[in-house]
Design a protein that fits this description.
By secondary structure, this protein is mainly α. It has 20 helices and no strands. It starts with a helix and ends with a helix. The chain binds 4-fluoro-L-phenylalanine.
């Protein structure tokens, strides 16, 4: 069974793949602006505490369950008990919907990277338009959106088809060090620009008054939601990656290294993005528009010239790497489900074929995300209506139906992921017992679970409470 499913070739390879999954659009896009808008250093403090009390335990739980049962999300929960299988299905469904919109965004990143390459060689990579105009034109152009979306999905299919060691690991081992190197180059370049300082201040100066203005609970839930999305937790991704781990791999250290690396990269991404906006007088409080509109302007108008195009290319290349190493893990969650099913039936799984099938279905489901102009709808010149119009909801439009991306995100990140993390911690803390996790960690010769007592408290109390808070407040927010 082991051979049919595949296995990581080395500890370093696994680490790069797992950190690659964690480091994604969430780090480079979500983290800096959420941090800036929610109290800067005060947000960071809460985020770091959450990584320690929720992130470590959830990471450990997923990796240990995956390795113990040697199957993907569905297989693992089914092995725990037939009545928990739905938790696994929810994980696969989350991966499915996240990948659908994540790949549309990935395709957009690719378009921006291509644009800056063209600009570097003296061509008009963006049709000579300003960042806002270009964004509006591009996102409502069905053909362009679909083409870049398709290319991004094909990239994922190629890598995941290659298997665990020969595809995902091989790619991540090259991509992740490259990402780190590019990030350092950009941070250094940005740091020497006059006026960069205000960006660091926006990010790091603790604004505790935000606890009063934004509400402490709001900040807590934003940080918690960001944290487990960023760590790829709550949907069985780390269960799936854990299922390809050999018993010689040390879970006691990996449960710490992966979250710490992810957090460092998120902070570093902020140190590239925020000061860059500050130095060129761009508004960094812009929220989601940051990645495309604001940063495009920073590179093309702010920095300008060849160096601006070069930095723009490097930046979007970096974001592309981050997006691909994450999206392949989402696809792997879905592919692993199909592979496990074949093996269960005693059939030979054809990874290439199964990957192609599931990715094609996901591609179709993601098409609405690519066609509604990210919320512009037909009224705004896009090819497709937003979900609210589509579904005939006209009064008091809830947030989640104002564009297809938000709708998918709400289903997956808003509901299924926190519910998945909640269920996993309850299962480990109260049904299976934390000893199961400890025993799995200690299967590795010479390894002891160093923080066992602390982990027990996390599984039993802290993770369930925090996840319940996130879940309830997301539901209230989305359906409000
Ligand atoms: N961690 C990724 C990010 O920060 O962008 C997103 C993600 C990947 C979430 C894989 C969940 C997952 F299973």
């Amino acid at each position: 069974m082991e051979n049919k499913r595949g296995q990581w070739g080395s500890s370093f390879g696994f680490l790069m793949a797992a950190v690659g999954s964690a480091v994604g659009l969430g780090n480079i896009w979500g983290f800096p602006y959420k941090m800036g808008a929610n109290g800067g250093g005060a947000f960071l403090l809460i985020y770091l505490i959450l990584v320690v009390v929720v992130g470590f335990a959830t990471m450990l739980g997923e990796l240990a369950l995956g390795r113990k049962y040697g199957r993907g999300a569905v297989g693992t929960y089914a092995a725990i008990g037939k009545k928990w299988t739905w938790v696994g299905y929810m994980g696969v469904a989350s991966g499915f919907f996240i990948l659908a919109f994540y790949s549309v965004l990935g395709g957009m990143v690719l378009r921006y990277m291509v644009g800056f390459i063209a600009e570097m060689f003296g061509m008009t990579g963006f049709g000579g338009l300003g960042s806002g105009e270009f964004f509006g034109g591009f996102t409502t152009n069905a053909g362009s959106m679909l083409i870049y979306y398709a290319i991004f999905m094909v990239l994922n299919i190629i890598i995941v088809s290659g298997g665990i060691e020969g595809g995902i690991e091989k790619f991540s081992k090259i991509a992740m060090p490259a990402l780190a190197a590019i990030l350092v180059v950009i941070i250094v370049y940005v740091a020497v620009q006059p006026g960069a300082g205000a960006g660091y201040a926006f990010m790091f100066v603790p604004k505790f008054e935000a606890f009063a203005t934004n509400g402490f609970f709001n900040i807590l839930r934003t940080a918690a939601g960001q944290m487990f999305f960023s760590l790829s937790l709550g949907m069985g991704c780390m269960i799936t990656y854990g299922s390809y781990l050999g018993k010689e791999q040390n879970l006691d250290t990996n449960m710490v290294i992966i979250p710490v690396a992810d957090t460092c990269i998120a902070i570093m991404a902020g140190m590239a993005v925020m000061p860059a906006c500050a130095a060129f007088g761009m508004d960094y409080g812009r929220g989601p528009g940051l990645l495309f509109v604001t940063l495009h302007e920073v590179f093309s108008t702010g920095m300008g010239g060849f160096i601006g195009s070069l930095m723009g290319f490097l930046f979007y290349f970096l974001v592309l790497i981050a997006a691909v190493t994450s999206s392949i893990s989402l696809l792997e969650v879905c592919t692993a489900y199909l592979i496990d099913k074949k093996i269960e039936k005693g059939e030979e799984p054809d990874r290439k074929k199964l990957t192609l099938i599931i990715a094609s279905i996901i591609f179709v489901v993601g098409i609405p995300v690519a066609l509604d102009g990210l919320g512009a709808g037909r009224a705004g010149g896009a090819a497709l209506d937003i979900p609210a119009t589509f579904l005939g909801i006209t009064e008091n439009i809830p947030m989640a139906v104002d564009c297809w991306l938000d709708l998918y995100d709400c289903l997956a990140e808003g509901i299924m992921m926190p519910l998945g993390a909640l269920m996993m911690s309850i299962l480990i803390g109260w049904v299976l017992g934390t000893k199961v996790i400890k025993d799995e960690v200690e299967e590795t010769a010479g390894v002891k679970l160093t923080m066992y007592k602390f982990m027990e408290i996390c599984f039993k109390f802290i993770v369930p409470v925090i996840m319940a808070i996130v879940l309830i407040s997301q539901i209230m927010d989305f359906f409000g």
